[in-house]
Amino acid sequence: MQRHDDRCRCGSRVAALLGLLIATALQWERVFGQDLRIEHVTVVSPQSTRELRDANVTVHDGRITAVVAAAKDAPLRQAGAPTLDGRGLYLVPGLIDSHVHLGSIPGMTDEQERAHPDIARATRDQIPRSYLYFGFTTLVDLISTPDEVARWKSHDPVPDTRFCGGAALVDGYPMNYVPKPQRYARMPYMIVEPQGGAPLPPGVDPAAHTPQAVVERMKSDGAICVKTFFERGFGGVHDLPVPKPETIRSLVRAAHAAGLPVLLHANSAEAQTFGLDTGVDIFAHGLWNADETAAPGEFTPAVKSILDRVVTAQAGWQPTLQVLYGLQELFNPGFVSDPALPRVLPRSLIDWYRTSEGQWFRAVVAADLPGPDPGAALRRGLAVPIGRVAAASAYLAKHGGRLLFGTDTPSAPTYANPPGLNAWMEIHRLVEAGVTPAQIFDAATLSNARALRLDGEIGTVEVGKRANLLLVRSDPRQTVQAYDEIVEVILGGRVLARETLAANR
Q1: Which of 345, 288, 271 is nearest to 119 (CA)?
Q2: % residues pLDDT > 90 (the chain)
Q3: Mode of pairing for the β-strands spanning 316-317 and 282-283
Q4: First-to-final CA distance of the chain
Q5: Which member of 49, 133, 233, 480 has the greatest number of CB atoms within 10 A?
Q6: How many CA atoms does the CB half-sphere of 410 hold within 13 Å?
Q7: The whole model's pTM is what?
Q8: Strand partners for 160
């Protein structure tokens, strides 16, 4: 009986101690989200070519309030404000991925998610952390709605997330992949052209789907940009409807009047020429497809002419190289055993990817490839597009093009675009292509912020900006390894130790 009483008292003390620890952690987290001081750190920010050594940075209510040399430091320490020792470390702005899709779990259909609710729940809880794990404190979902963004933001922690409205031509790409009539509800910002194609379903009012009308609706819904599409199809499909030039010019005029940039899904020479002719602001892919071929690492005069026009127009250009490598990885049996994968995905999902059900998209892709070795056929087919985009990225980087960092995660229902890790792989693809670490740093911070008109809020380490910051061990202008040497992620002034964000934590 005495032993039982001792165990009870011991259990009560443990419970009380755990309660105290939890309460203290929550209180500490609230403080971290409000006030913070980082001392003796080297500040590296893309608006300046020079770093500020031995600096003190203070944060209040989630915003940067001072960035000063330690020797000249005047601000008083706020009572109770946590302090981080930045000696030997670099403070840089948080990264921005300006091309993600957050509505789905990579490699899972909606039906499979419903069939495996525990796996899906664990994965949805982890995905926001996985972006943060690799330093992405801001995401831009290029085809979303307020309801979908609210669902995403219900997790904690979650990167700052903005969205574009998807202005697809009715029944064109990507609406063609969604069965009727669900497609019309899932793409509320679709465009209906006068004297269009097939009759519209009941309840769809063409007047509500003009370029002007859809931009007004996006703006009122909180979108920060417009995403439209020029895509004739993939694989055996080449006859999807595409918008008329006057339609997109009207969309661009309406969007610019509302203060919204326009992005175009355009991965071909025809599509990027169309975008340049109609005045879009950002190309949401590299130049994957062209009618002409060239030697590896080179491109034809026609492609060079497009790239020169991109430079002259200062149009944003997202290479999205990892999309093509992600398709190849479907046929790499070692991909699901990559030791980096458990850092960003729950073990239960990785195990599911190994099942025949989890390999469904690989089977779909393989069915469209010739010969006994579909993986080899795919690699041969993608070698020229990969070489073209890599060479084009290097050309734009060398000639003053406006490279923007975006990953298109996930680009398709593939498990080979894991959140966060996909961006880390994209960074390495850009390095391999010849883009310098300094250019990648700018593309993922200030250039992205400017292109999306967010540079008043994020993209640099400056007074008044939102305190979305990274404390790293290396200078990212010198080495991209800095993004895998993150010590702390700071999200609106809230400090998140990197190891707490890993899936296998």
Answers
A1: 345
A2: 82
A3: parallel
A4: 40
A5: 133
A6: 19
A7: 0.92
A8: 138
